[in-house]
Amino acid sequence: DQQVKQNSPSLSVQEGRISILNCDYTNSMFDYFLWYKKYPAEGPTFLISISSIKDKNEDGRFTVFLNKSAKHLSLHIVPSQPGDSAVYFCAASATIRGAGSYQLTFGKGTKLSVIP
Amino acid sequence: EAGVVQSPRYKIIEKKQPVAFWCNPISGHNTLYWYRQNLGQGPELLIRYENEEAVDDSQLPKDRFSAERLKGVDSTLKIQPAELGDSAVYLCASSFDSLFMTGELFFGEGSRLTVL
């Protein structure tokens, strides 16, 4: 049972336009959400995160929105650039009481292609 | 600052053969993770170390997989014997302590295993 779902395997966007990547989760215990970006033959790299106490976090061209009631988050990239072409993974974590470390559960990823 | 280093980058073996992967985390990072990423999927946690202690190995197939983190620094992941279904990218990641402050894991480039 997938707890983090990215239902769009791929997305194509024109350069300069907005890219919107979506993610849904099922586990109500998740309280921290992250987006990772992955280029071919490289490991994932952290992009942006959001705590469950917020509904928006912005970092330059990247904004993550969280809708807790819908268990949905989205990543907006404005404006999209060709260098943004990569696979984007949504990940979620829940505090483990007493252990002090989070576990990350990843979605399957969405491949973004930004067309020049 | 050096990132997470993994070796080998690529490994091709025949089924039933053993294989080992090595990971050197970022200096000072106490938490180390091994993830497995199958084609078209997101990374899935195999094992997590806090210093030299394996605090979560619930998803490690213990009949054929083993891992160790001697002295709380480098780590090795071993598969013996390998099966066709073990073909995947094995990702090592580290974090300073927990994900509490930034939620960020630092990933290595991964070791791609092909079992023939």
List its salient traits.
heterodimer; A: 116 residues; mainly beta; six-stranded mixed beta sheet; five-stranded antiparallel beta sheet; B: 116 residues; seven-stranded mixed beta sheet; four-stranded antiparallel beta sheet; 11 strands; 0% helix; 47% strand; globular
- Overall morphology of chain A: globular
- pLDDT under 50 segments of chain B (min length 5)? none
* CA radius of gyration of chain A: 14 Å
Query: Largest interface: which pair?
Result: A-B, 26 and 28 residues
Output the radius of gyration of chain B.
13 Å
Distance between the termini of chain A: 38 Å
| Contiguous uncertain segments of 5+ residues of chain A | none
State mean pLDDT of chain A (0 to 100 scale): 91
Which secondary structure elements does this structure contain, and how are they paired or packed?
The complex is a heterodimer of chains A (116) and B (116).
Chain A: E1 4-5, E2 10-14, E3 19-25, E4 32-38, E5 45-51, E6 56-59, E7 62-67, E8 72-77, E9 86-95, E10 102-106, E11 110-115
Parallel strand pairs in A: 2-11
Antiparallel strand pairs in A: 1-3, 3-8, 4-5, 4-9, 6-7, 7-8, 9-10, 9-11
Chain B: E1 5-7, E2 10-13, E3 19-24, E4 31-37, E5 44-50, E6 53-56, E7 65-68, E8 75-79, E9 88-95, E10 106-107, E11 111-115
Parallel strand pairs in B: 2-11
Antiparallel strand pairs in B: 1-3, 3-8, 4-5, 4-9, 5-6, 7-8, 9-10, 9-11
Walk me through what this model shows:
The complex is a heterodimer of chains A (116) and B (116). Chain A contains no helices and eleven strands. Helices cover 0% and strands 56% of the residues of chain A. The mean pLDDT of chain A is 91. With 116 residues, chain B is an all-beta fold. Helices cover 0% and strands 47% of the residues of chain B. In chain B, the strands form two sheets. In chain B, strands 2, 4, 5, 6, 9, 10 and 11 form a seven-stranded mixed β-sheet that branches. Chains A and B meet through β4, β5, β9 and β10 of A and β5, β9 and β10 of B.
